[in-house]
Design brief:
heterodimer, A: 187 residues, Rna Polymerase Sigma Factor, Chain: A, Arc Repressor Mutant, subunit A, 10 helices, B: 219 residues, alpha/beta, four-stranded mixed beta sheet, 11 strands, disordered C terminus, binds zinc ion
């Protein structure tokens, strides 16, 4: 896949905008998912994911071909998510209560509309609990946890995306995992 | 009993797949005799399993379209380049027509009047200058927009502009013979320029070179 992507990037570099559409198609769900788990809000996540792709396009001349495109787009998306979280900081405590609410309404709506069997309802509740727990993590732990467990990236890739030493990535994952353990042990 | 912190670190190392054989042995040994650490370890494993159980999410259907609409408009040149790449035959045909027109325009502009320097013993037949066999022409001969056939002797240079020279085996020129074919030179020049430009359109070589020099990483 990486070969195809680099080919498309070369076309984009020559100014062929259509080639970029194919790149967006390949990564959109992963990037959206990253944003959703970081922000806990569907609309916001889609906005930020789109913004990430637009920024990547505008700066494509600065893309280092030695990197994987995924590393680069994840980096841009992660930075945008962190910016967004920080902007919301002033009313962080107000928001903390409702952090997972969007997920909650989304899942509950699905549940209400489709009349799901008992075990699916349980799994929906579980999914809500997991998203709430992620949303409560401080952003520096949330980022590494999402990259590792939602995006299933290696520690090395995470270290590259965040431009952070491997040791720091490990420490943050350990702390994030401990914090989630305390929140999730009784679900 | 308070357990040493190292066992918690070992658990995380284990979960990250970075634990050494010796540390793993110590951890297992400890877990077998310490219910508190055992439940801690199970809770961590459960946490990981829960995180991994999250289903994958999909964007809305018009996601890509929305991104593409929001991109800054592409340069016109790029559109032309794409057209050339996708229509190679039409590109070749266009190129041919442009060159044809170019050569016609050039010969039109130059005028096609047949002229020849005035000398004794020269014979002119249908835009062809003839130095007849057995004759000697003194001085340089210049022919424009016509040909020259040399069967006799020329004591001087022969220059043919926009025409061709024929030197018979018995013919002789004491000076230099030169053909300046302005039209073909002009076309050749145009073709070289054109192919260079087209080549660049196809490869975008110049542009890519510029851009690959900037490899700074986006922060
Ligand atoms: Zn213990």
């Amino acid at each position: 896949m990486d070969g195809v992507v680099k080919l498309r990037i070369r076309e984009v570099l020559k100014g062929d905008q259509n080639a970029y559409g194919e790149i967006v198609e390949l990564y959109k769900d992963k990037v959206f998912q990253l944003c959703y788990r970081m922000l806990g809000n569907h609309h916001e996540a889609e906005d930020i994911a789109q913004e990430a792709f637009i920024r990547a396009y505008v700066n494509i001349a600065r893309f280092n071909m030695e990197l994987k495109f995924s590393t680069w787009i994840y980096r841009i998306a992660t930075n945008l998510c962190i910016d967004r979280i920080r902007k919301k900081k002033p009313d962080f405590y107000l928001d903390a209560e409702v952090s997972g609410t969007d997920g909650l309404t989304m899942y509950s709506q699905v549940a209400a509309e489709t009349n799901l069997p008992e075990e699916d309802l349980e799994s929906i509740e579980l999914q809500e609990a997991i998203q709430r727990a992620i949303s409560k993590l401080p952003e520096k732990y949330r980022t590494v946890i999402v990259l590792k467990y939602i995006e299933e990236l290696s520690l090395n890739e995470i270290s590259e995306i965040l431009d952070m030493p491997l040791g720091t990535v490990k420490t943050r994952i350990h702390r994030g995992r401990e914090s989630l353990r305390q929140q999730l042990r009784n679900v | 009993m308070v357990c040493p912190d190292k066992y918690i670190s070992y658990m995380h190392e284990y979960l990250d797949g970075g634990i050494s054989v010796e540390q793993e042995r110590q951890l297992k040994e400890h877990l077998q005799q310490c219910p508190k650490c055992q439940s801690h370890f199970h809770e961590l494993e459960k946490t990981v399993a829960l995180l991994q159980s999250t289903g994958s999410l999909k964007t809305s259907d018009n996601f890509t379209a929305k991104v593409m609409e929001s991109l800054p408009k592409e340069k016109r040149k790029a559109g032309i380049q794409r057209w050339f790449r996708r229509h190679p035959l039409l590109t070749a045909a266009t190129l041919f027509l442009v060159l044809m027109m170019g050569s016609m325009v050039s010969s039109w502009n130059q005028g096609d009047e047949f002229t020849v320097s005035k000398q004794a013993n020269l014979v002119v037949e249908n835009n062809t200058v003839i130095v007849p066999e057995g004759e000697v022409v003194e001085g340089d001969i210049v022919v424009r927009n016509g040909d020259i056939r040399i069967e006799g002797k020329v004591n001087g240079n022969v220059t043919v502009v926009n025409g061709e020279k024929y030197l018979a085996s018995v013919g002789e020129v004491t000076g230099e013979i030169e053909e300046i074919n302005a039209v073909f030179d002009w076309i050749w020049y145009q073709m070289k320029n054109f192919f260079a430009a087209i080549g660049e359109l196809f490869t975008g070589a110049e542009e890519t070179k510029e851009q690959s020099q900037e490899v700074a990483v986006f922060q």
